[in-house]
Design a protein that fits this description.
With 210 residues, the protein is an alpha+beta fold. The chain is 30% helix and 14% strand. It contains seven helices and six strands. It has helices at residues 3-14, 72-85, 101-108, 156-160, 183-193, 196-200, 202-208; strands at 18-23, 37-44, 90-92, 112-113, 119-120, 128-135. Strand 4 and strand 5 form a beta hairpin. Helix 1 runs antiparallel to helix 2. The longest helix is centred in the middle third of the chain and has 14 residues, at 72-85. It starts with a helix and ends with a helix.
Length: 210
């Protein structure tokens, strides 16, 4: 069993089924503290709280009920303890302008950027939250996603967005978010919709079983 398999096995015991390993060596050294690998871990939203099952009166103040508790800290602590025992450096990865969870996830190959500018995975769509740990451990890294895997003819999130923040364009590495997503428009309506684009995603529907 190699180091990757040990970490994946450890996280499965903790209840984490989605984990990836990202090669960070081409990113700026300072924000990653000189550490070359990012271990990205994910937890799903709770299926009973998705937006398309709620009426308009229930859409306010529901955001905190979207997840199955918060196991992310437990995942992170387990991985850091494992790395410490192995004599490796480890550092919790807090999102910055230079290194984001979405960047780590695309680099690790566990997901891509959707039309809604959220990270999308085949397992759960965008109905997912992340944490990450950076390390110098000699881990094998995944194959990055460099283009969107969203179906070009699926515009469910585009059509339902009350802010009309999306134009249906597909992400690929090097394309600025503004070319397919209006973040300012999204922020203005976020308190009202709270993420209905997540609920309508076909990947989320299949993964969460609703």
């Amino acid at each position: 069993m190699n180091l990757n398999q040990e970490i994946v096995g450890l996280l499965k015991q903790e209840g984490c089924d989605i984990v990836g390993f990202a090669n960070l060596r081409e990113l700026p050294e300072e924000p990653r503290k000189g550490l070359g690998v990012g271990i990205i871990m994910a937890t799903p939203y709770a299926p009973q709280a998705v937006w398309d099952k709620l009426d308009d009166g229930q859409r306010q103040g529901i955001k905190d009920k979207w997840t199955n508790g918060s196991p992310l800290e437990r995942y992170s602590k387990a991985v850091k303890a494992f790395l410490k025992d192995g004599g490796y450096k480890r550092n919790t990865a807090y999102p910055t302008m230079q290194i984001t969870y979405k960047m780590l996830a695309t680099l690790s190959g566990i997901g891509w950027i959707g039309k809604c500018a959220l990270l999308v995975t085949k397992e759960l769509g965008p109905a997912i939250r992340f944490t990450a740990v950076l390390t110098n451990a000699p881990l094998e890294c995944g194959t990055p996603f460099t283009t969107s895997q969203c179906p070009s003819d699926c515009d469910l999130c585009v059509e339902i967005c009350p802010a009309q923040a999306m134009n249906g364009g597909l992400w690929e590495r090097g394309v600025h978010r503004d070319e397919f997503f209006d973040a300012g428009a999204c922020r203005k309506e976020r308190s009202k919709c709270g993420g209905v684009c997540i609920a309508v995603c076909l990947y989320a529907r299949e993964g969460l079983g609703y």
